[in-house]
Design brief:
about 20% strand; alpha/beta; about 40% helix; five-stranded parallel β-sheet; about 150 residues; 5 strands
Length: about 150
């Protein structure tokens, strides 16, 4: 069974509480539960990881190169300035899909630039919690294409 790792970056543990007008009303736990159910229905094993710490995210990306077939990453604010996470993505050589709940291109100007996008397989943004499910479909396509 193919394994997908979902990495949630800083402040995403507060989903459902933090700026619901931007990020929606669904709780972090509810989104993860629904994601795992959808992944299982599609024949994937899913692991969920969240950290507010850049180094922990980098460590998890490093581990994923031996434990996962693909990564769905919402790096939160690290998207816009973490060259260390960018380098970790580049180093692991498995597909990484960048995900954002909000449309980062329709928000503050500093959010328009993703330093991780050039080393990700693709970017999905603006569909709320459904961004994760669109990414799941993309991972399915990518992994089938590699087979």
């Amino acid at each position: 069974m193919k394994k997908i790792l979902v990495i949630h970056g800083p402040n995403l543990n507060l989903l459902g509480e933090r700026e619901p007008g931007v990020y929606g009303n669904d709780s972090f736990e509810a989104i993860n539960k629904e994601f795992v159910e959808k992944a299982t229905q599609m024949g994937f094993e899913a692991e969920i990881f969240q950290s507010n710490h850049e180094g922990a995210i980098i460590d998890k990306l490093h581990e994923s190169r031996k434990e996962a077939d693909a990564v769905i990453l919402n790096a939160g604010a690290y998207t816009h300035y973490s060259y260390a996470i960018r380098d970790a993505i580049s180093a692991i050589k498995i597909p990484v899909i960048e995900v954002h709940l909000s449309n980062i291109h329709a928000r503050d100007e500093f959010r328009h630039t993703s330093v991780i996008a050039p080393v990700c397989k693709g970017q999905i943004a603006g569909f709320g919690k459904n961004s994760y499910y669109v990414a799941l479909e993309a991972v399915k396509y990518i992994l089938e294409e590699q087979s």
